[in-house]
Amino acid sequence: MSIEDGPGDTLSPSxxxxxxxxxxxxxxxxxxxxxxxxxxxxxxxxxREEQEGESxxxxxxxxxxxxxxxxxxxxxVAAMPDDELTEDIVDExxxxxxxxxxxxxxxxxxxxxxxxxxxxxxxxxxxxxxxxxxxxxxxxxxRKxxxxxxxxxxxxxxxxxxxxxxxxxxxxxxxxxVE
Length: 179
Fold this sequence. Notes:
Blueprint: H1 13-16, H2 19-22, H3 47-52, H4 56-62, H5 87-95, E1 101-104, E2 109-113, E3 118-122, E4 127-132, E5 135-140, E6 143-144, E7 148-149, E8 152-153, E9 163-164, E10 177-178
Parallel strand pairs: 9-10
Antiparallel strand pairs: 1-2, 2-3, 3-4, 4-5, 5-6, 7-8
C-alpha cells in the first residue's frame, strides 16, 4: 500500500507541514505591509463619496511633482550677448538637456543636436544634411553621395544594389533582384 492509497489521501509529514501553507517564516523574502493604513484617509471610501465622485480640484491637490521645475533664466537666450552664452545654457534651452530631436512643423524642418553633431532635414527642398564636426553626409532628392571620413570612403550608395536574394513577401519587387 503506497502513501497515495491511504485513508483520505493523507500527506506525508513533510508535505503536511509545508511552511508556505502554514506560515511564512522560512527565510523567504517578502514585502512588509505599510506602517499605517492610508486607505481610509482617501476620498471615496464611503458609498456617498463614491457616488459623488472626486472633484478635479481634489485630485489635483493630491498630485506631487516628479521633479522640481527648472529655474527660469534671468533673460531670454536671444537677448544674451554671445560672450555670456555657454554650451550648457544653449543645450538646456534648446533640447531640455538631453538627446532629443526638435521638429518645427511650420517650416518642415527637423533638427537633432546630440552634443554638437547636427542633422537638418528641410522637407521643402528634399535635402538632408548631417554635419558631424566637419565631415558631411548629404542625401539630395534620391541621390546619395559617399563621403570621406578620416581618409576612408564610408559608402557610395549611388550604386543601387537592389534586393538581396529571394522575392519580397508582399508582391512584386520594386528593385532588381541580385542573386
